Amino acid sequence: MRPGENYKGVAFSFIDVIDARPNSDFFVFANDLNIPIADKFSSSLKNYDVEVLSRSNRDKWVDQLKVI
User: What Pfam families does its record include (predicted)?
Assistant: First the structure.
């Protein structure tokens, strides 16, 4: 797979889950500490309503994911 195209495996695995659980929220945790997240990766996942959460911004989103 070419760089920036590793979203394909992630995105396609959500299709079956979306059909079975349409009210679910989907997240991808992306490690961008050494390599930036490719725009194509983020935009492709957003087309499937999958939110990309970058490790470098974890302080902004980590509290939202805590289980109540």
Answer: DUF1829
